[in-house]
Amino acid sequence: MSDLKQHISSAFDRDLESIQAQIMKMGGLVEAAILDAAKSLETRDTELAEKVRAGDKVIDALEESLNDEAARVIALRAPAAMDLRVVLSVMRMSANLERIGDLAKNLAKRTSVLVELPQIGGTATSLRRMARDVELMLKDALDAYIQRDEKLALDVIQRDLDIDQMYNTLFREFLTFMLEDPRNITTCMHLHFIAKNIERMGDHVTSISEQVVFLVTGEKPDETRTKADRTSIDPALSTDFPVDEG
Amino acid sequence: MSDLKQHISSAFDRDLESIQAQIMKMGGLVEAAILDAAKSLETRDTELAEKVRAGDKVIDALEESLNDEAARVIALRAPAAMDLRVVLSVMRMSANLERIGDLAKNLAKRTSVLVELPQIGGTATSLRRMARDVELMLKDALDAYIQRDEKLALDVIQRDLDIDQMYNTLFREFLTFMLEDPRNITTCMHLHFIAKNIERMGDHVTSISEQVVFLVTGEKPDETRTKADRTSIDPALSTDFPVDEG
């Protein structure tokens, strides 16, 4: 019986390894999509943007196969509580990764629209820097998962506040450009959406990091993390946008 | 053995019923949140907006308990493939519902900002109508789930195209108001975000409906559903916004 148990357990471990390899592969593709999408925006490279859009199908397919595999493992191995928690958290993480991939695709979609419009200041460069920071957060979140490193995961969650702050700053910039010259409005609306999309990527990375903390400690990280959103405190500051959640 | 099997099976059915009751309760709360948030915007009712914001905590708590319950059922009953599919789809649906709840909360958040700003035309009324349509879609998606009604679920997916179209129309309206008078810019940026949030609610309802189709048929609905998004076809139409996915 104990031999059988050990046999089952190591089969589960092999399955889990395969699932973890898949999630790291997916994570790598999503990281590349973030960087490429932001680069395509700054360099006005529609070919690269098209590559990101096409590549999203691969990410979606990986999520699907990962979910099938996870469901298969649950059905076949009937994992114990802690192991089940790992498999379920992988499913949630893959959903977050898939959504970040979608957001990168949306960013790339707007690139093909924006190349037809005039450029505005150094905003594309600021957006690329913001995207780069989110990509580094994602890299660390995935490392934190593999290493079961609660401290690193908490650090990533903290860094998302900087992303929110970057978003607020960019929003004010866009508003200034629009007020300065109405011909900037259409471009700024697109750029604003891109900033918002990158901010949302940060939220998904935060959610992945929260899964890591939950996995390691069995508890959710403090839910009352301060949102760098001042509009909900003082509505008069309405040039700041409420930072959306979810 | 067959008695034992039957015993296990009916215990599973009871568990599933309890989970389904929870998801319907959650769905009801989310429907109310959509309607109340949109009403608070149109009637500039900050008290109602505050109620929506506070109520989101209940929705979040329901999602959490639903996930715990689903994980418990999987661990305890080791459901067979088809039953497992039902439980996993409920977990995904609850994630969609939770996100719609977040979007309603975000809408309500902006209400408290917008009451400080001048009203613009009948846009709040249009937004409320759009929200009402999404709420009806959600109602039907949940009915489709309970009845395992593939046809109704496909109908809901189809209706999301109208929501995308409403969003495109509103976007053009906001742009006109902004070009007309730069003092409208801040208000229109907020209203535009609300329109986008409602459009995203529609996407989540679509995703719930797709889960229903998958449950009934074992296959995903045709993935190439036409997005009512013309910008990706003709970038010159850049007053239309690319309809984001995900």
TrEMBL record, chains A, B:
What do we know about how this protein assembles, alone or with others?
Homodimer.
Q: Name one GO biological process term.
A: negative regulation of phosphate metabolic process
Which Pfam families does the entry link to? PhoU (PF01895)
Q: Which family does it belong to?
A: Belongs to the PhoU family.
Residue span of region Disordered: 224-246
One Gene Ontology cellular component annotation?
Answer: cytoplasm
Name the gene. phoU
Give all residue intervals belonging to the PhoU domain: 23-111, 127-212
Q: What is its main location?
A: cytoplasm
Protein's recorded name:
Phosphate-specific transport system accessory protein PhoU
Q: Where in the cell is it found?
A: Cytoplasm
* InterPro entries listed in its UniProt record: PhoU, PhoU-like_sf, PhoU_dom
Which controlled-vocabulary keywords does the entry list? Answer: Cytoplasm, Phosphate transport, Transport
Summary of the function given for this chain in its UniProt record: Plays a role in the regulation of phosphate uptake.
Gene3D superfamilies given in the database record:
Phosphate transport system protein phou homolog 2, domain 2
